[in-house]
Amino acid sequence: MALGPYLGYQAYRAGPGPTWLPPLGKKFPNLLFPINIENIKMAKHGSDSGVYDEHGRFVNSKFEEIFHKYARTHPDALTAEELDEFIKGNREPKDYGGWIGGLSEWKILYYLAKDKDGLLKKDTVRSVYDGSLFEKMAAEKINKKKHM
């Protein structure tokens, strides 16, 4: 089995949770599973990073705290080991569903978005939160194909 479809399926199952549900007032969900920003608060789970508050607002201080606390090798990036420490540091006692959610979300992100040196850059993580990651990845892929 190819890893791509498996990761896609796991990404769908693990997150971003029910953010693809229709905005209030609409009857049917979009089967293309877009992320509706109005529903982002529904993606919160226990043992998460806290970068989104309970109302779905981005909390910059929580985002910066990730790198301040865990990025020891490079101040603007996380190694695989530092990412593991971060995931473990967010665990709430007996929140097994949240542990699995956080682990799968961050590990999939690391697999998809780490650089050639195995670092998950701060700008890359920020692009997950602002919604631009996949647009950037698509542009990079197109650019690579042009230079081949």
Helix content: 40-55%
Q: Given the C-alpha coordinates, what overall shape results?
A: globular
Count of DSSP strands: 2
Number of domains: 1
Helical segment tally? Answer: 6
SSE pattern:
HHEHHEHH
Largest sheet: 2 strands, antiparallel
Terminal Cα separation, in Å?
A: 28 Å
Structural class: mainly alpha
Q: Uncertain spans, ≥5 residues at pLDDT below 50?
A: 1-16
Characterise the protein shown here.
This protein has six helices and two strands; from the N terminus they run ααβααβαα. The protein is mostly helical and 148 residues long. The protein has one domain (3-146). Strands 1-2 form a two-stranded antiparallel sheet. The protein starts with a helix and ends with a helix. Mean pLDDT is 81; it is low at 1-16.
Which terms would index this structure?
single chain, 148 residues, mainly alpha, disordered N terminus
